[in-house]
Write a structure and sequence with these properties.
By secondary structure, the chain is of the alpha/beta class. The protein has a domain at about 5-225: Spore Coat Polysaccharide Biosynthesis Protein SpsA, Chain A, CATH 3.90.550. About 40% of the residues lie in helices and about 15% in strands. It has helices spanning about 15-25, 45-50, 65-75, 95-100, 125-130, 145-150, 195-205, 225-250, 255-280, 290-315, 325-335, and strands at about 5-10, 30-40, 55-60, 80-85, 90, 110-115, 140-145, 165-170, 210-220. Strands 1, 2, 3, 4, 5, 6, 7, 8 and 9 form a 9-stranded mixed β-sheet that branches.
Length: about 350
């Protein structure tokens, strides 16, 4: 096998079934396999979806967040490329081929696609499209160490791509400068996000290139109710602060201090002033005000969430080498590989 598609799932059998249907129908000029990591084995909801599907493998996950599930997959995958996606997406039949085709040079370690909404109908979906869209623009872009170093403030790696549609060379994770996914981040953790932007940072810092190609499209299901939408905005903004703290304390990148102490507070003050001015002039609450409250609360909760997430990660060490990025640790995991 040349590539493995990895899908980490948590009790969403209906959407997982739809995702698997379109992934299984991929048209490629290379062989591939699909690995589903079940991050809530106890519920029993996922095995019936995967059972008897051709070329689909089932793997019990550690159940401690998206990144822990992805690291579990890395312990068994042995293909040249890995395509990463979520259990609630729809892709066209050439999605995987297009991603792999972008690996035209050995320095390219990651390829990201465009992400568009599957639908924009409910109030929550419309608000997310307006204030939290996942689109990264219509132009092909390449990001490298020079781009990362060009920022005087914290590098805006969240503009690179989205973590539900990207491909990697498997050997990328063998480089100790990159390592595994950071399990203190991402869906299912206290931080709730920022796993993708921190992974992009590690890849670029190691000297590799990330490609964003907008003609490759994945369709994502936006949260269709307001409570889910507000929760996602809250998590995004916890992750924003946690990302800066990780840069400061793990990567010793003091540009994160500029972001935390100057940039983010000034953003929020300007936003608040603009909202208050609009409220006074129009005599009604601005549409963005409830969102702003979740943004502000998320930023304020970021430091505590980051501390708790790292504590939780340290307390559950069943995934090999959770924070050990040495080659020896990876080699130890490599003995367990079997998919591909």
């Amino acid at each position: 096998m040349l590539a493995t598609v990895v899908i980490v799932t948590y009790d969403r059998p209906d959407s997982l079934r739809q995702t698997l249907t379109c992934v299984m129908q991929q048209k490629t000029n290379f062989p591939f396999t699909i690995l589903v990591v079940d991050n809530h084995v106890e519920s029993g909801l996922t095995p019936p979806v995967v059972a008897n599907l051709p070329n689909v493998h089932y793997l019990p996950g550690p159940g401690r967040g998206l990144c822990s599930g992805r690291n579990r997959a890395l312990s068994v995958v042995d293909t040249e490329f890995i395509v990463w996606t979520n259990d609630d997406v729809i892709v066209g039949e050439h999605w995987m081929q297009q991603l792999i085709d972008q690996f035209t040079r050995p320095d390219i370690m990651v390829v990201c696609s465009q992400v568009k909404p599957l639908r924009v109908e409910t109030e929550a979906e419309q608000l997310f499209q307006k204030y939290g869209t996942l689109s990264k623009g219509p132009k092909h872009r390449e990001f490298d160490l020079k781009w990362l170093s060009s920022w005087r403030k914290s590098p805006r790696t969240h503009t690179i791509g989205v973590g539900n549609s990207f491909a990697t060379r498997t050997k990328c994770f063998q480089d100790p400068k990159v390592g595994l996914f950071n399990e203190a981040f991402g869906a299912g953790t206290v931080v709730g996000g920022a796993d993708d932007q921190y992974f992009w940072y590690r890849v670029l810092k190691a000297g590799y290139t990330i490609v964003y190609e907008p003609t490759i499209v994945l369709y994502d299901r936006y949260e269709n109710d307001l409570s889910s939408f507000y929760r996602k905005i809250f998590n995004y903004n916890k992750g924003m602060v946690a990302y800066e703290l990780e840069l400061i304390f793990r990567d010793h990148d003091l540009r994160g201090l500029i972001q935390l102490l100057i940039i983010i507070p000034s953003w929020r003050l300007r936003q608040f002033a603009k909202l208050m001015k609009s409220w006074l002039q129009e005599h009604r609450q601005p549409e963005y005000f409830p969102i702003f409250l979740r943004v502000l609360r998320g930023n304020l909760m970021g430091p505590l969430s980051w501390l708790i997430a790292h504590r939780n990660a340290r307390q559950s060490m069943s995934t090999p080498s959770r924070f050990d990025y040495s080659e020896a640790s990876w080699a130890k995991q490599g003995n367990q590989k079997g998919i591909g």
